[in-house]
Every structure is written in structure tokens, then in C-alpha cells.
Amino acid sequence: MSIYTKSDRQKAAVDWIERGAALVPVRRDTKYIVKGWGPRQRTVTDVVTAVEVFSQGDYNLGVVTGGEVGLACADFDTVASYGAWRSGPGLGARGLIERTRRGFHVWFIGYHGKALAGEGWEFKAGGAVCLVAPSTVAGYTYGLLVDDSPLAWTPNARDSFSLLSGIEKTFSAPLPVRVLPRATGGGDVVSKIKAAVPVLELARSLVPSLAGEGRWLHGVCPFHKDAHPSFYVDTEKNTWGCLSANCAQRGTHDVINLAALVRGVDNRTAIKQLAAEVLA
To answer: Was domain 187-278 assigned CATH 1.10.760.10?
Structure first.
């Protein structure tokens, strides 16, 4: 898991390399690939080069779809098109989901079909380049909403993405899916932390204005200019998030994400700290 700041390009690059991706530097505040780089020219495929390239220039981070792991990106151009998927076939789906300037990115691995497009969305695959957090375009910095590594392209994933009519036609046989290792410190440890640490306790330290009774509490979101209380805590599921489309923290997050934000550390560090505190 990771929540990136604007200065975390190196860390984000390393995370994507560990997922099996190839990268290209993109000119800051644009979607233009730096001259001499590209899917058919030169890409970054190892950690050493990633650190070197993304420490020298103020670049955006471009991920090349396709490759051995079959990376694919569902690019929702609008909040409405993402909402239609999220509230329907994508309800409850986790994986790697990012907020972009106009909409959202949902990432998959194990997809080796063709690129597709429809009203309000585009399914990018086969060598297309997609910007990822913390890239900035026209002054807007992409942000992570959920980071459990990309979704494996399984029958369940296909079902959850049935909004993209026609994708199933690209499958003539089960696809080879390489399940990438999760950089979360271990699923058992993470589950135990989530069960042991109440989100509400952390949330109150960050949002003293939280109010409400029962399952849901709301308050003024500290992550954007919030005219209305859009920050929420779901005490039943022990999750939190923001309801505003203009917030980098829009969506649903867990206690580890919140601990990292409150403590000013990345999620890996938060997991180690919480494990030492509550699982000792």
C-alpha cells in the first residue's frame, strides 16, 4: 500500500517496477512522453534505473500497459462513468484505483486482449501509456484511492467489469495470470491490524468536527477545501473516506491508510508501527 505525495515519484516508480511494469518519463504537467523514450523505444524496467531517472528530472510517471504481466487500465473520463461502474458491477471491488484530473483509473493484471472504448471510458492495453500518481496534469496531481496492487484478471474480475461490453469476447481460453507479491507486510498481519485498530479513534485526532450517531459520522474533510462535511467514517466496516469528487482521498480507505496520513509516513511504515503497537 502507498499514499504518494508530489515528491514521491521515485517511490511510485519502484512500486510499479515491483509489479512488473515498464515505465517512461513524461513531461511535467503534461501527457507528452520525454523525447527518446516510449513503449517502442526506451523504457525503465529495473529499480536502479527508475531511481536514477525519476530523481534527475521533474517528470510525470508513465506506465506502459501490456507486457508479461498483462497490465491494463480502465480509464474513466468522468466521475459519472466511474460511479456507474462502482455502484454497479464494480461494487466492492478493490485493487489499484486512482483519482485523475477528470475521472478515475482502475488497474488490472493478466489481461492480454485488445484496447476498447465506450461512452465515458477507455480500456487501455497493449502498449498504451497511462499516467499514474503522483503525476500532475494542468495543475492536478493524481492520487491513490485504493492500493491493494492491481486486480488479477479472473472470471470474477471480468464479471465485475461487465460494464465494458465486449471484453469477454477477447477471451478464448483462461488467461495466464501471475499473481504479484503484495508489498503490505503480509495479509495476516494487515487483517489483524484492521481488526484491532478502530478508525474512529484515529479519525477524531484528524477531524475533531466528526459528528453523528450510530454507524456513520461526518465532518469537514482536511484534505481539500470542504464547504460541506464530506469526510466520513463507517464504524461498522471500520473504514473512512471523502464524498467529494474534488478530493484526492475520495473513495473508501482503511485504518492503515489513515494511520499513514496522521503520522506522516508511508503505508509500509504504518503497518510496521501498528503491528509493533497492537500485535506485540
So the answer is: no
29: its cell numbers: 504537467
Whether cis (ω within 30° of 0) applies to the bond prior to 134 is yes
* pLDDT tens, per residue, the chain with 280 residues: 345 665 678 888 888 888 889 999 999 889 999 999 999 889 999 888 888 888 776 899 999 999 888 899 999 988 888 887 777 777 766 678 888 888 889 898 888 888 888 778 888 998 999 999 999 998 888 987 777 777 776 666 666 666 554 444 333 223 232 232 333 334 467 888 888 888 988 888 888 888 887 888 999 988 888 888 889 998 888 989 888 878 888 888 888 888 888 777 788 888 888 888 777 6
Phi, psi of 180 (to 5 degrees): -80, 145
pTM of the model: 0.58
Distance CA 234, CA 194 (A): 13
Nearest to 57 by CA among 37, 72, 83: 37
Strands 151-152 and 104-109, by their bridges, are parallel
Top-tier CATH class for 9-170: alpha beta
Tell me the domain boundaries of the chain.
Answer: 9-170, 187-278
Q: How far apart are the first and last CA of the chain?
A: 22
